[in-house]
Amino acid sequence: MNRPKNLISFAAAALLVCAFAAAASAQVASVSGKVFLKKADGTAAPLPGATVKFYRTDIKQEFEAKTDKSGRYVYAGLPFVGTFTVVVSGPGAAPTYRIGFRAANNPENDVTLEPGDGRSITLADIGTLEAMKGKSGKPVEGVNAAEAKKKADEIAAERKRVEAENAKATEINAKAPEILKAGNEAFGAKNWDLAITKYDEGIALLPDDPVFYRNKAVALFSRGRDKYNAAVRVKPNDQAGITAAREDMKGATEAAEKAVGALESKGSGGAAPAPDPSQPNKALDLLSTRAEAYRLALTTSTTIDNDAAAKAIEAYINAEPDQAKKDATQASLGDALRFAGKYDEAIAKFREALAKNPNNLDAIFGLGIALASKSGAGDSDPALVTEARDALKQFVAKAPDTNPRKQEAAGMVTYLDETVKGMAASKEAETKGNKTTRRKP
To answer: Which residue among 126, 226, 228, 416 has the highest number of C-beta atoms inside a 10 angstrom radius?
Structure first.
């Protein structure tokens, strides 16, 4: 049984300033970045000739850098210690500033300027802007009052936003581990309902984190599997129970897709999740969970996107380094291809799986159904129908009575056996008819 792992990455980390590793003995730091100018259409372009001034405020020092034609600036000798106010200005732009800048914490800094008259501002101007925060604003020498108030309001709004996000981060840091632990404990006790409820709470708190989605997927298909097995043991089958199980299976595939998608968005954004150096098996675990969710959905005849299932299972097979696990999943890929109507591809996958393990029950069953499906889709070759019947006979002989597919396979054997006999009788009648026709004078 798959069990959730106590893995979690907190979105709060994205709200904190990244620490810049530097040797304790370093005296100066290199600071660089790009300056952009916002255009009327909302896009931004690199701004050559912009000025980036560093005013040291713990002692009196000034440093300056200019952007090149690509809008990039580099200042390699900024004191490693000390606090700065940074002012950025440029042609056709309104100036902006930042207080409390430290080179040790901010090696790379990009700035986007609003359109303006190209002037700069001084430390005195900045002091005025800071003093104006929360006030109505009066004309100030060297600073346009309306622009100054707008800038002060923007700064206040940004500060409020950061404070709100940091408060949210604090809440996440406090609640998320507790929610994950409660969900995992419920899962361990097979209390699927409570586990799913807790994982949903985690998703509401961390909607971009893959772990809660992954654990919810496992809990859903575990609950669905229990419901399905119980429903098919009843004679006649409990159709309401089967329907409820299929709803869980479909929900599991959706949650598993979101888990993989969340990890992709944190990585390269490509076709597969980017590896997490701190959790090297995390990406593979998510791909495995998604493949298993689709496999169970297929085996319970749940209505899903069959092409998506085939792609998901194949993605896991390609990523899995363990050859035995790759081989075991081949039958699932065959099921996905069969449900997608790709019978020849499905048959090839089932044969490939059986070549490696002749006793693979899933592959035996899948091959029989795929052959029968192909014959029913227009290929009335008696040899095809016969092979389908024989494969399903082999499955019935080998599968334990507890296998939920055994009854279905036995019914198919009876049907295909009658089909084979009917085809043989039809061919015999046709042969006799041809002989009679030839004897006429």
So the answer is: 228
